[in-house]
Amino acid sequence: MNDLYQKRAKLVGHVDSGLLWLLNMHDDWIHDQYGESYIYHGIIYSSTTPFHALSTSVTGYFQDDDTKRWLKVKDGKVIFEPKDISLAWKDQLEEFFTFTFTTGRYVRYKEAKLL
User: Fold this and answer.
1) Entry pTM
2) Facing residues of 113 across strands?
């Protein structure tokens, strides 16, 4: 069984940028310099790659503390539509996954008639 890696963190970014960055929980975000900002506190989870406790380039899934909704994080950032960030959020973690099954190829032949 694979391990699950996690840590408390926050996602921050300017409202108009279309980009959120992963920061450690106690790192400062100088949002006053940039105007209106998004700041989300929560937990980042990664099931594939272990990361250092202070790393901010994590790939995984982030769950917001307040809404319990999810974002997909790749290399410490989330890219979203600047006009509507709500499109990036998912209510359930399973909404990020798609499954396809290939069952094989079946060929049907006509029965041969006997003379």
Assistant:
1) 0.76
2) none
